[in-house]
Design goal:
Blueprint (H helix, E strand, L loop, with lengths): L4 E3 L1 H13 L3 E8 L2 E6 L10 E6 L2 E6 L16 H4 L4 E9 L2 E4 L8 E6 L1 H14 L5 H8 L2 E5 L10 H4 L11 E8 L2 E8 L2 H7 L5 E2 L2 H16 L10 H6 L6 H8 L5 H5 L6 E7 L5 E8 L9 E2 L2 E2 L4 H20 L9 H4 L7 H10 L12 H5 L1
Parallel strand pairs: 2-8, 8-9, 9-10
Antiparallel strand pairs: 1-11, 1-12, 2-3, 4-5, 6-7, 6-14, 10-11, 13-14, 15-16
Helix pairs in contact: 9-11
Length: about 375
């Protein structure tokens, strides 16, 4: 790829305009109801300019930064999976005819440019690639192939961030078309722009940008390193897969279950969770029928319902399923963690359950340290 370039805020506006001219619907962060959500944007005026988000376990609020930073926040409750696997997707529709039924072909999905994607979110899309692409999921594959990604390296992590522990940030490594790093120091406010693909390089060629000076590159890199050294959380990953697999009968799951509301917030905000259900809908007059895929969660009773009852009836069993899948069995399936360290599940849990603390608690109370008296999984979770 080409050498790093430098653009200013007008250059970012030009980048958005170029993407729109190329037929993309640009979706990026914008403030909606005291929350940073993803929506269609047309200029930097739509971005959360001068806004930061304060996040802690069960706590989220926005506040003024006192500067003109375009990307001074971290992440909100939404991820770009809302565009790649949108809930309520109709993936088959039929109409009744005189000769039976005919299938209605769906319109092509929009070409989305994911603007302002944090490294953890880019990593989450790569994780979902491993889930959907090998099985040829048409909804996801077509939307993914038509997308363009403008990533933004993180320079100020939130208190709930732990991407450095999982190697998914704060610098984006791959999976992006263009990566931006915002540098705001005194009167100096610029963006280091780097291409990650040929099409990204082609888009940058349409901008009025200049080559970056060595000191500008070093300054941008230093900010990212500083973010890596100042993560709000950490997760010890050594031996984690085996740890969780060996602790299915740990009594800690019931203790967590006593706090868990099974509200599904953690799975709804997670950028990698892919649980879904299918609904068949039919018009009352029988003139049409459609099959719809909606988001679901392993925290609901119905999700594990099989011939007479749910497999996981207690909140503790459902939380154990979720964290064990994310941090252990996901590696058996896909060769990676199912967590990217974005911290959303911590922030948006109403009771502040913290995946990093719970994993550490299991490590501290590892039942393999106890020689005798280990109960069965059934005894623990009944």
């Amino acid at each position: 790829m080409s050498e790093p370039l430098v653009i200013d805020r007008q250059g970012v506006d030009a980048l958005i305009a170029v993407l729109i001219d190329r037929g993309y619907e640009v979706v990026g962060p914008t403030v909606r109801g005291q929350t940073i959500l993803y929506d269609t944007i047309t200029s930097t005026e739509d971005l959360p300019v001068g806004i930061r988000d304060r996040q802690e376990a069960g706590s989220y609020r926005l506040e003024e930064r006192g500067d003109d930073a375009l990307f001074g926040y971290v992440v909100g409750p939404q991820s770009f999976k809302k565009y790649l696997t949108p809930p309520g997707t109709v993936f088959w529709k039929g109409l009744r005819t005189e000769d039976g039924f005919e299938t209605v072909e769906a319109d092509p999905p929009p070409r989305h440019a994911f603007f302002g994607a944090r490294p953890c979110e880019v990593a989450a899309m790569r994780v979902q690639d491993d889930v959907y692409l090998p099985v040829g999921d048409g909804v996801y594959t077509e939307r993914r192939e038509r997308s363009f990604t403008v990533a933004v390296n993180c320079t100020e992590p939130a208190a709930t961030c732990f991407c450095a522990s999982l190697g998914t940030g704060p610098a984006v490594s791959d999976g992006y078309d263009i990566a931006l790093t915002e540098v705001l120091s005194g009167e100096h406010h610029f963006f280091l722009a780097e291409a990650g693909t040929d099409i990204g390089e082609d888009v940058l060629a349409d901008l009025s940008a200049r080559p970056a000076h060595d000191e500008e590159v070093v300054g941008a890199r230093r900010l990212v390193v500083h973010a890596s050294d100042h993560m709000g959380r950490s997760l010890e990953t050594d031996g984690l897969q085996e740890l969780l697999s060996a602790n299915l009968a740990n009594s800690i799951w019931n203790e967590i279950g006593n706090r868990c509301l099974t509200c599904t917030n953690c799975t709804m905000v997670c950028p990698t969770c892919f649980c879904s259900t299918v609904e068949d809908r039919q018009a009352l007059d029988g003139s049409s029928a459609e099959r719809v895929r909606t988001w679901d969660s392993c925290f609901t009773l119905d999700f594990s319902y099989i011939h007479g009852g749910p497999v996981r009836s207690s909140p503790g069993a459902r939380y154990r399923q979720w964290i064990t899948h994310k941090l252990s069995t996901w590696q058996d399936q896909f060769g990676s963690f199912g967590c990217v360290g974005c911290g959303r599940c911590i922030t948006w849990c109403p009771v502040g359950i913290d995946i990093t603390q719970e994993a550490a608690a299991v490590r501290e109370r590892d039942i393999r340290k106890v020689a005798v008296g280990i109960p069965s999984v059934k005894e623990v979770l009944e």
